[in-house]
Please model this.
Amino acid sequence: MAQQQQMKYLAQVENAKEAHDGKPSVGPVYRSSFAKDGFPSPPPGMDSCWDVFRLSVEKYPNNPMFGTREIVDGKAGKYVWQTYKEVYDLVIKVGNAIRSCGVNQGEKCGIYGANCAEWIMSMEACNAHGLYCVPLYDTLGANAVEYIICHSEVSIVFVEEKKISELLKTFPNAAQYIKTIVSFGIIAPEQREELVKFGVAAYSWEEFLKLGENNQYELPEKKSSDICTIMYTSGTTGDPKGVLISNENIVTFIAGVKRLLESVNEQLTSKDVYLSYLPLAHIFDRVIEELFISHGASIGFWRGDVKLLIEDISELKPTIFCAVPRVLDRIHTGLTQKISSGGFLKNKLFNLAYAYKLKCLKKGEPHATASPICDKVVFDKVKQGLGGKVRLILSGAAPLAIHVEAFLRVVSCAHVLQGYGLTETCAGTFVSLPNNMGMLGTVGPPVPNVDVCLKSVPDMNYDALSSTPRGEVCVRGKPVFSGYYKREDLTKEVLIDGWFHTGDIGEWQPDGSLKIIDRKKNIFKLSQGEYVAVENLENIYGLAYGVDSIWVYGNSFESFLIAVVNPNVQALEHWAQENGVTGDIDSICKNAKAKEYIIGELTKIGKEKKLKGFELIKAVHLDAEPFDIERDLLTPTYKKKRPQLLKYYQTFIDDMYKKAAKPSA
Model:
């Protein structure tokens, strides 16, 4: 209990519950200290997502809302902006056109494509008329898109022009539901003819807007409890699950984040600028954009090409930059490569400046005053590379490596915050706080609109009542979803007595921040009966030198673990050069000495972290090609798809088990 008294960023609202009748014990219930006197409420009149937009149009009609880069002679130019009032007028036309097609309140509207102004206009038209907005995953194949259309019974789809051919692959099955398709651009005559065969009306964006000019419909009354979107989660196994998100979920999320940012003097204003590039089909970007709209801030869209992302950032000059770890890893790798190739003096200067500023930050200095001279002389180029105005970098969707987080906190001249949440909790459940190096590697305390507790998991030896509380993270509050669409069975599994059971294992830190250390379902038993918490091991082995990513596997008929490793190419090539191993990176990966070297690095970190003997890796397969979405090895939020990884690497796994010397019983 001594540790719990130190949790300065938490307010305890309920006592711990001891185990009864063999049931796991539950730790104390906490909420953010910023909400100790009660959760924040949305402002008067903000009961729905439509109100979020409507109120901002009333307050900031002439503010720039959406920016898109103009293309002149095939080259991208400046951002051209539409005001809040201009966007509102278009949204009204879109909504009238939807209704004129016979689509009414409570029906489902699909949106399929990359982020653009038309995407959000279509979403806002859904909000206006009480339709369920159903994002169709841009990163998933036609089978998943077809499943979502049929499962949610989508009757109208807005689609990016180049995705129409993909959408057509869902027919004829989708034809029993879809009656109207609207392209964000044009529709080719042959595509229109094919759709007509299925009895589907097809419109270009301009044609659809004209349809809405001559038809006026009153907006239906909307309640905070109404569902506004069904957001399908990709999942690591099985069919996607439709998460029912209500108006209340999103407006209370906005109120909580607003309270948090104000409490740490980093509140958003109408002058803030956001780059929209993370998929709007995911909850992370969706709620962040709702947050920006609620403040009358500006949203600029990328061109849809990751290779051009930095150029879009330089032109837009965002003030807030949200990212998934994969994007920040690329930025980190690019920067470190530039530094290492900059010559001895530049390298030395950078390392001295880095060490000095890191030391100041660890002493508790705010990042703005930790080392202004180093910022101006050494780190300003990094700042300018992100447009020059970024003040907050927020990482979510997956764990951010500690060394990347620390590096970016020093060199970006911005606050780097790591957050945690799920689609089911409306994305923002925890977030680390600015100017707090003690929260490095954690997801911070809860956002001030939820209650949180840990539940013991005896099978994995996690005790919510121990001196270092560990257990399954459970969340309660208005941002928590209403259930899974048409899946009451799955809903009952995770929503128990008002608590959402995340399946993630958390560990409270002394200051009240949370560290995600494991996944409840990622546990298996080896042949000798020992349980292995695989995600925790991957987090540890991910710290090993020369390892970019690792998938750990254990067969229940075997007594030891093996792994597939994505090595750091630069580090492995450097090792090969020093050890006389020749060839390209693929041939190096096949080299037995290279595998021994990586196993040695894994063993070193494993022993340093006091892992048990059966938790050490005995054999590895090295793959220079990173795990990716294209091969179906990762979800769109970069979580490992373990069954798919097993299938993909099965030949190598069988070979490793045959060749590896089995330890004696």
Notes: Residues 34 and 431 are 13 Å apart (CA to CA). The chain has 23 helices and 27 strands. The first helix runs from residue 2 to 5. Residues 1-5 have pLDDT under 50 and may be disordered.
